[in-house]
Predict the 3D structure of the following.
Amino acid sequence: MEICAGGVTSIQVREKNCSLSEFIQRARFITNIVRFHIEPALGKKIPVIVNDSLEVGIAVQADGIHLGAEDTDLREADQVLSKHLPAAFLGYSLERESSGAKETDSGCRPKWSDLLAQKYHCPRLAYISLSPVFSSKSKDDGKSPPWEVSGLRDFFSYLSSQREATAPAPAPLRLSLSPPPPNQKYSQNRKTNGRYPASINIGIGGITSQNHGLLRQIGLEGVAVISALMEAKKPKEASMQLSLRTRVEWKLN
């Protein structure tokens, strides 16, 4: 796990072509390794996130579970985790097609209001991942087109308009800034275990050290990568380079 020493701030275990028992075995193996590592810049343990499966996440006591549109509903997942893994957080993939965007004369204009209102009001939701940002063989399942720069600009323009529209309200939706206040029990877990991710809108898919700087300017608060590290000849060095450039260019602490 060279990338752990390179500065990554979380690890997601992602398996699409194996049995449940194999998934649990691999996730447990990775989880046990990662928990021996401390994130160099922040001095904190690196959280492990399990993709797509509540069952696997609970079995290995993961720090977080990442779900998509075809997985368990977020509110249902929240209820399950409250019983079996109360300290865990949730992440959610938002695809351009499933987000309700449609082509009009003025281009791709999203209708995200109902979807985002539901998603951002899940108390356990820590981040939303816009996926895929660019074309990527790791995320190319043919189900949804890449967001590309134009789609991201539409998305954050919409969020900005919602913040302005809801500003006078007693409890406005601040969709791209932070999740709503979690319930008291989860708030205590968040405060004591320090594993709640800081980002709310992150991007994944086709992101490299060469193109990720632009994404911060558009509105993303974090990036996730697969090929940029897993296919690198020297994963630790690649992780260090991407982590350093992200902290410097994005002005992160």
